[in-house]
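Comment thread on ticket #2218

A.B. wrote:
> Attaching the input chain for the structure job we discussed in standup.
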Amino acid sequence: MIDDARTYAFLGPAGTFTQMALHEWVGDEPHEQVPHGSVDAALSALRAGEVDAAVVPIENSVEGGVSATLDALAGGGPLLLVGEVLVPITFVLAARPGTRLEDVRAVGTHSHAWAQVRGWMHTHLPRATYVPTLSTASGAQGLAVLAGEGDRDTAHYEAAVCAPVAASNHGLDVLAEGIEDNTSAVTRFVVVSRPGSVPPATGKDKTTLVAYQRADRAGGLLELLEQFSVRGINMTRLESRPTKASMGSYCFSIDIEGHVSDERVGEALMGLKRVCADVRFLGSYPRADGGEAEVHEHTSDDAFGEARAWLRSLRG
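C.D. wrote:
> Ran it. Output below, let me know if you need it in another format.
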């Protein structure tokens, strides 16, 4: 927990998995929650100083990286990741009271949620069309709003895929539960602040950064990856994202094991700064899973310190 963060933006409305992650992060600490309709809006509020921190999804074990978050962190004013939360994902199919499963012709939900229930939908609602919503909770909220407006035929969809809490919040009936195709699905959320102090190293840390190549050339990505491999650093995530500057121009969003204060990580960041057009450091923070990096003797802090002392002796 960062001491000065008391007002949090999150991907809303109420009842999203992001709000569940926020609850887990703050625990019993006094705080204020400010829902936003998109990741961009939540991070813009943070950059503008309207909130102290923001909680947004960054990665799903089924669908991979959340592109809206990756792009928002790679561009705009600098921000700092100070923590992460892992939330197991379970979905229900919710509808207005009186709706039967056979009445459902269209289903509203977020794109990542739809990707995680496609198998169930193919089996139970093969003719239902997908209607994208800003979040799973906004899909449920849309049904609640539409409940008092005209008859059923005026709605864009008859059911929503959402978290159980969202269905409850909006007074919807649950037509089916546990509809996710992968029962072990997990979404990773990050806690984001404005630039400031990096959380201290715990020995069980993760570092996130964005690297921009100087040019699209043979061996360019290999040169970037070698900065980690030769220093014994394991990558836990690597994704390419378009820079939007021109066709074929990409940057790389990367998670690695370790903390910026670790000698091997510091050396790797210096190597990246040397070979890349730009490197955006997004923070070092404790891993939510408590995993500890495997550090070999020749890549330990002591080994780097001894090598540096040896070089100084040669130069001296």
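A.B. wrote:
> Thanks. Noting for the ticket: Residues 3 and 29 are 10 Å apart (CA to CA).
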